[in-house]
């Protein structure tokens, strides 16, 4: 039997997210309904494209549909990547649709990693990215983003971790895993760092790089023209995973994807996927195709980038005022997010004592109905990140405001 660590973050979410009154731990940009989606389409031409998609769906027989995902959906996914990169436009067949990025990551790891393989994974990140390869018998080394470096990537450190292959091509690092933008830190790897990582992977024998890009393109601190590239637009052994959940506010459509320049990777994943998926729901596929159609996707992203920026100002104001708000009882510090939907905040008592994140979260929920995520429980390996909290600040602005008001009262001891 495969042994795998409990997935702490998902278990915490499962236990508390439906009972919390103010969920400010969630990582999706405030989710939208199909009605919201339909309203985005009262388009310039006056044509109701949403109704058109819906009508087609109502008439379609509900067989399995396209096994790898409909060509229309996959085509729209290819448009999320650059067509002007040296590698050209991504072919439709280089995209495989999966039930969420979580299934895309799992499938890739299951396909690419085996017992004894050396795998490097950026840390902190979504636990799946290092726990699954560990469960498959790989030797996983964590490439740590360190607080003292502002949680930025240390390329010298990565270089030390990479094992070059032997002359016969065996024995080297099998896979490098990054998460860009990063959950929980809320930062991203800038273009220069990405190119350096690719260079290290190339000179060490074209090591594949799996980049979990589920928060892409939420680079809300940047202009669109300065977004860093996807891994698959700068490296032909790069593999990207993504989904409708975070940047597109549609996690309830359980669809995501694997995109890769090497067609063999897609075929290998498709072959493994035959054993556990067959196809995704045609309803999900159709609605996701619609949401990623050119006019609509730009409206969703415009809404969500504005939401991230508005809410980040509110959060930032709160964080800087924690000593005042708590009558001097607490300090809070963080690296202000530049991308994604999460902030990783450290709370300390006024005399520098670490806060028990688990107890704090449980009490906050019990007394005020507010949900934070305890960093030590959900992102820590051993004692790491005790006293940290992941805040998902891209929920509805009113939820964030009301939630932070409750936290303020909690910090003052007003229950
Ligand atoms: C980094 C990362 N990858 C993947 C996922 C899974 O997302 P989904 O399966 O909804 O696409 C999450 C969800 O929180 C995540 O944070």
From TrEMBL:
Pfam families per the UniProt record, alphabetical: Aminotran_1_2
Protein name as catalogued: Aspartate aminotransferase
Family listed: Belongs to the class-I pyridoxal-phosphate-dependent aminotransferase family.
Keywords: Aminotransferase, Pyridoxal phosphate, Transferase
Matches recorded under InterPro entries: Aminotransferase_I/II_large, NHTrfase_class1_PyrdxlP-BS, PyrdxlP-dep_Trfase, PyrdxlP-dep_Trfase_major, PyrdxlP-dep_Trfase_small
Record flagged with keyword Protein biosynthesis: no
Domain named Aminotransferase class I/classII large: residues: 60-397
